[in-house]
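Question:
Now give any protein.
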Amino acid sequence: FTDHHVGRLIDALTGLEILDDTLVYYIIGDNGASAEGTLTGTFNSTIGINGADDLQTPQFMNERLDTWGSPESSPHYAVGWAHAMDAPYQWTKQIASHWGGTRNGTIVHWPAHIQARGQTRSQFCHVIDVAPTILEAAGLPEPVQVHGVTQEPMHGVSMIYSFDDATAAERHSTQYFEMFCNRGIYHQGWSAITKHRTPWEFGHLEKSFDDDVWELYDGSKDWTQAHNLARERPEKLHELQRLFLIEATRYNVLPLDDRQFERILPEVAGRPTLIRGTSQLLFEGMGQLNESCVLNVKNKSHTVTAELVVPQGGGNGVIVNQGGIIGGWVLYVKDGLLTYRYSFCGLQQYTVSADARLAEGSHQVRMEFAYDGGGLGKGGRATLYVDGNQVGSGRVERTHTLAFTADETTDVGRDTGSPVTQDYPAGDNAFTGTVKWVRIDLGSDSHDHLIEPEHTRRKEVMGNALGTILPQAIGVAISPVPIIAVILMLFSQRARSNGSAFLLGWVLALTPLFYYLPEATLGAIVIRAVWGLLDVGEMRRYWRLRRTSFVLALTALLGVLVYDILPGLLLAVVLSLALLIYRASRPQGSILGRIPGKPVYSDIARHPENEVVPGLLIFRLNAPMFFANDEPLRDRVKELVRTTDPPPRAVFLDLEASNNLDLSSVDTLAELVGELKAEGVELLLANVRAPIRDLLERSGVAQTIGEEHIYPSIEEGVKGFRAQFPAQDRQRDDTTG
């Protein structure tokens, strides 16, 4: 179906004679083959996500062999087929760590602008690179604002650089991956990955992140991720694990949260939804509304009310429905009787009917569902009312947890999809009277059951606060940057231990006994507790290793004692940030030399045995370059050029510590190029990340520096320097200055 209509679009572009000038991306899939069909396959794809695998027994499967693939089913193939379809890669959809879950073939067609024909490209690209590519192709800048909302800079890199150059240096060199805490990092050909959750295992996971096993692959030699090098290259694995944490922090992946149902449910996860509030009014003729367009009635009490005009004889047909043959609910009239049907995954049917026919005329009918609570997907009681009078009641023993279907809809006055029940046919099922309106209201019952008690955020926060923050906030001197310590405490798995619950019970039990104690006595207790919490040994360690950390810790302690916990912590945070800015604005730099016998460069001051490249001054800034330190950096480089004997022919600036540059830094680099050229010195750049290179090219500074003077590594730059400047020309004569 999709291919047919894509073909129609291509035919139209061909007919208009603009196909060759149209950039066409054909991405073959949105992820790897799905393993959500479980080890045995499933008759109904919603069974697993609604926690009903217990119903799908071998007997159940065999009884339905003849209806697999029919309109009565919504089948999904077994895990084995998913692995086969993702070969030669490992794993499947949801496993974002492995290529089997994420890598998809892509075809790019743009004949009027791509000279290459029928070739492949091996540079790493990600789906976030598509938008920057389209913008560059169209000659448009990234949007700074959309409808008045300031936009975050795009994280991707345009692919156009690779279209006509199969050997072009890779520009998207680093990319994190994460889904359901399956996570990994790609960096310059290498990938470090770990699987945390298995796709066909739904619900709560009793597994610590510390138990995840990491794997390491060298993509330059092993593009299928078949040979795990974690044991042979532990230092490389550690490097990439650290890089994952950096990228995950930068792009808001942390804290990791492996809860599944709770993250998917918007009201628990805190995500915005299209429908707000607890009441929604629908009218006859409204239909084909997907679940995100209708109030979520799952896992809670709710009411469905409708205003009807009933024809003579009591009427027939659908009043309102949600879902279809593989799961959902419907309020309808059959042979004049108001009826409610709940179909759990199309496997278990629950019906409640009125005890008397609807009379001709206007009526208000209502179905009230009282949810049992106590967890997700529990049962409840459905009660029918006509004009305020109860006319029927019955049990629904099991309900959907996450979704009724992936593609069925909500309709008013008729069921436009597959029928929820066989009591009415597909298509010809419109209510024979008039549905004036339908209103859905959510109940006022407590929704604590949406998360199992042992996993609630309330317990986590309370457990952390009582078990960790309260005793340690007073003794906050143990951390030089208190806010970081507090954040770590908040998300520490250890803080969820039984000790927190025990402390909570202890406090609740003894609080009444403290009520009548004199304030002086209570003060003495607090002072004694504070003294016991002070870690004098740790403070001595800070004094010995770094005095600034000692001062910050002492400031935090005194601030908490004098001003209260929050002001004290804020004072420490402000001072910590001030110190951070101060250090960043006065960064340390290193002059580098080549380690003998290795293509590696390190600080000459620490390793005087390193080899100096004649005529080349290699300088590394040991902090990101930005507006607060770009001027000191420029002055430092110029000073080194003046004081180096003999004077260098070129300065090699290593930007490895910088992930991006602001405009002030770009301008400073441009000025430095001119000032050095006036001295007869060239400026070379190394380890320039893709966002920096793109910015330099857009600003024209790359052309000022010279594309040939920008290198992916120091070693490549040294080779380029030696090729550009023969040995006799590498020393600059002072008289030519």
Notes: The two ends are 71 Å apart (CA to CA). The chain has four domains: 2-30+88-250, 271-449, 456-585, 589-736.
